[in-house]
């Protein structure tokens, strides 16, 4: 019971720290941002709200100014089921990438951030 309370309290502290120190979003031309928005429509992030690795990933999305759909796999049973059925495990963060060849599920915050930077950082 005490451990759960500590974990919840620490999670909320991390969320508050993120809100206070969030980086500025990348500036783009209107055409560049429209292209990013269009490409980001094929992405979805499955996450837990107070998970430190999910927060790290959301911070990168905010910094890169990439509007990715968020699904809370902890509080939303349908999102949890979709994550388990598609990705094979309930592990967050997980980025669902819809591509012409099918759907890809990417785990690990560092891999997700590297993918987002490679795909969106240089769009002007």
From TrEMBL:
Matches recorded under Gene3D superfamilies: Glutaredoxin (3.40.30.10)
Domain GST N-terminal positions: 45-122
Source domain of life: Bacteria
Any one Pfam family match given in the protein's UniProt record, by short name: GST_N_3
Entries under SUPFAM superfamilies matching the protein: Thioredoxin-like
PANTHER family: THIOREDOXIN FAMILY PROTEIN
UniProt name for this protein: Glutathione S-transferase N-terminal domain-containing protein
Provenance organism: Achromobacter veterisilvae
């Amino acid at each position: 019971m005490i451990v759960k309370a500590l974990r919840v309290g620490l999670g909320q502290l991390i969320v508050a720290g993120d809100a206070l120190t969030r980086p500025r979003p990348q500036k783009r031309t209107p055409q560049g941002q429209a292209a990013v928005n269009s490409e980001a429509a094929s992405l979805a992030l499955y996450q837990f709200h107070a998970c430190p690795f999910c927060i790290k990933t959301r911070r990168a999305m905010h910094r890169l100014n990439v509007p990715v759909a968020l699904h809370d796999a902890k509080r939303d049973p349908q999102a949890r089921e979709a994550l388990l059925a598609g990705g094979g495990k309930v592990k967050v963060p997980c980025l669902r990438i819809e591509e012409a060849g099918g759907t890809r599920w990417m785990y690990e915050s560092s891999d997700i951030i590297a993918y987002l930077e490679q795909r969106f950082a240089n769009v002007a």
